[in-house]
Write a structure and sequence with these properties.
The protein has 251 residues and is α+β, with helices and mostly antiparallel strands. The protein is built from five helices and 14 strands. Strands 1-4-3-2-5-6 form a six-stranded mixed β-sheet, with helices on one face. A three-stranded antiparallel β-sheet has the order 10-7-14, with no helix packed on it. A three-stranded antiparallel β-sheet has the order 11-12-13, with no helix packed on it.
Amino acid sequence: MKRWFGGLVGLLLAAAAVVPPAASQSERALLPDYGAAPEFHDSVWLNSPHALRLSSLRGQVVLLEMWTFGCINCIRTLPYVEQWHETYADQGLVVIGNHYPEFSYEQDLNNLKAALVRLNISYPVLQDNLRETWTAYNNRYWPTIYLIDKQGQIRYRHIGEGRYAETEQAIQALLAEAYPTDALPEPLASLSATVDALNVRGGPGTDQPLIGSIGSGEVYAVLGEQDGWYTIRFQGVTGYVSGEYVQISQP
């Protein structure tokens, strides 16, 4: 070991290299760039007044957690994720839980809704029963956290529990990065039902086959409109809902 003074300097330099400082508004955080983050799939959103897309979240930092409510490791991370949501949402952090189930009972939407209440989760959650966003990220483990910067690039990832202080420091660093205000994206239109149960049909019209229904608290991206019927992606297929019984919103 070097002398005390030299050792102290070396330790300080090492610490600075391992834990990146928060970036100023004119510089980029000292975090790796893992490439462009894949877009979210179209499915049902919970705990959100709007459907979300990465392309509509430019200028904000996104924390994406791959989780499932039956996973004990996931459950242990949730209080930290919820706290980051509460602490940094006003500063530009968008927390999203991508729920890909491990077991069949976790696929049930009502079970997922109940779990969000039981686990005190208030941030948006996307149901991923068909493993679409999970696969797009080449994800293999529950839980995994990704941090996506204001440009849509993956800048941080962590598998499993722990490293909470390091994750929070990375959040702070990415929030400090600048983003041009003239580059903000167009908002995404969303819909939700104004009745307790709204029929979803296979085509535009009441004569089309019934393929399911959507309930209160469920939000879908609007993919199109035809003859007063809105198009959504419902359980992996194209569905149509009557415009008479939906509320359209934008962020």
